Amino acid sequence: MGAVWSVFAKEFLENLRDRRTVMTALLLGPLFGPIFFSVMLQLSLDRSRVGADEIIRLPTMNSAAAPNLIAYLQAQHIRIVPVDGNSTGTRQLLAPERATVARGLIAQRAARLVLEIPEGYAASLEAGRPAALRLYADSSRTGDERYAARLSAVLDRYAQQIAMQRLTLRGVDPQLLAPVVVHHVDVSTPASRSLLVLGMMSFFIVLSMLTGGMYLAIDTTVGERERGTLEPLLATPAPRGQLVLGKMLATCTYMLLSLTLSTSALCIALGRIDLEQFGMSANLGPATAVSIIAIMAPLIPLLAALMTLIAAWTRSAREAQAWLGILQLIPTVPLVFASLLNLAPRLALMPVPSLSQHFLVTQLLRAEPLDRLWLAASAGSALLLGALLLLPVMRLYGSERVLG
Amino acid sequence: MIEARWLHKRFGSIDALDGVTFVAPDACITGLLGPNGAGKSTTLRILYATLAADSGTACVDGDVVSVTSTEVRKRIGVLPHNAGLYPALTARENIEYFGRLCGLDRSAARARTGELIELLDLQDIASRRAKGFSQGQKIRTALARALVHSPRNLILDEPTNGLDVPAVRKLRALLLRLRELGHCILFSSHVMHEVAMLCDEAVVISAGRVVACGTPEALRQRTQAASFEDAFVALTGDAGENA
Q1: How many angstroms from the chain centroid is the CA of residue A338?
Q2: Cα(A381)–Cα(B94) distance, integer angstroms
Q3: What ipTM score was computed for the predicted complex, to two decimals?
Q4: Using one digit for the tens of pLDDT, what is the confidence trace for B28-72?
Q5: Residues of B in contact with A231 (CB under 8 A)
Q6: Which CATH architecture has domain A51-183?
Q7: Residue of A nearest to B99 (CA)
Q8: Which domains does chain B have, with CATH numbers?
Q9: What is the CA radius of gyration of chain A?
Q10: pTM for this model (two decimals)
Q11: End-to-end distance of chain B based on CA atoms, in angstroms?
Q12: CA–CA gap between residue B65 and residue B48 (Å, rounded)
């Protein structure tokens, strides 16, 4: 087996000298996921912080007609900006002009929301008829809808308050208006809530494993053929099987490095974000990182064999790159199916590579206990498939087809 | 001793080799000569077992060569077309790597590499990466690599390709020295005067067949040509163009 180690050591060293390989396999690949995650989480964290105490600026037209409402809104952290004049402020707005002005304010992004108090508001309120208010908002601006939602809720509460006052004045119990009350009980735990986001983690880890091994899979096979070094290599008396094993071992090692780096980086990056504020907690300590690596590692030989087979089969490094680019999508296929079919983790699904790793990592992050049988089924099936894929690679290297 | 016995090889619908037969004896430099596409590289590839013949056998020292015949192949050293060095490895690493692949242990490979660096005058490039080597440096390094496991038989595919006159002379001196040590040397070329200058015996192939063999002088006399080059043209005819 001497040739295996010689080939491994040479491929490992040679690729360590290749800046492109090191950049993608050991830097960009492992760091892309964590950076992407941190930025995404931080953004949604910032947005969810826009909570009940943020002051909403509300341009209001004809505000003088509803002093009580205005006072109520102001007490609810809403800053009323009266818009009564035209653009130069020289003359009062006429009722038909108001809609145009409101649309203009929103279109120019001068306001997210505009409230208009129509002429008949005070009179209708006085007479006990439904008093119309007009709230302008652009629902296609996704960032603005929570402001509209909050303002609507405030207005609803105001209306309810008036209704209760009216009923009390007429001697009717206001509780009659609420025949059914629904209490929502959220049984999610902070750890399970975080899964919406962290469920993507296994996907990123698989991706970084693939990018970690991709250049080696290409370089050690079709790349070697293109550089003309495969011919003398195959002319040596070293058994072909050992050459293949050495090459794949080098690919696996880079994948393992990439896996370790990306998992550590993810755990550190996510650990730095204050997930508790987000109503989440995730189990992201060093022990978890080690467990994630252990769960993911059995995929490495399988993916390495797959990439080596494809790369050795292609005619040029360029072609290999195109194929392996497509291959990067394959591990996501089971994940997509699982979420479309709403598959729950069960033993029968554990032999499915990529899917089982996703389930197990997810369980781990939820701090749920892992079934040993499930772990064995997941790892065993991936390793077995990897060993099976080794056969066509060996066969290819035993034939002259490999020389192109 | 290297023997080709009735080698046949087809690539798709093309007969690359159509019964190539010759013997390259020990202590002799044999030149495999032919126009482009005559089947020189294919013949050599079958002899060093990266290709398998459809029929016929390749033998080294009387033993059949195949992909799996590890012991026999340890007696062959190969200089492939265009040297084929790893650009990111130094000359020393390139040579040592192949020493390990040919079954030498670490210290033996290192010692032998040191010897060859001396023998082939590679001291100044030994620790440089092969990426920027000149053609002559590449060929010399690849030759050292072919010799790393001290094979008795050497197969060189177009070793003079791209070499300038001093480099060819160096190569010639080296091959003569190896011949004196009793090695069997088989090389291919399509450049007449190099073959005439380098080899003891010439095997002329054209369109996948051996059309003549003998010493360059004998071939010239047989065809009654003024030079070996004319002899070559007379022997191969126009076959090289459509092969």
Answers
A1: 16
A2: 39
A3: 0.91
A4: 999 998 888 889 999 999 999 888 999 999 999 999 998 788 888
A5: 45, 50, 80-81, 84
A6: 3-Layer(aba) Sandwich (3.40)
A7: A236
A8: 2-75+152-242 (3.40.50.300), 84-151 (no CATH)
A9: 32
A10: 0.78
A11: 29
A12: 7
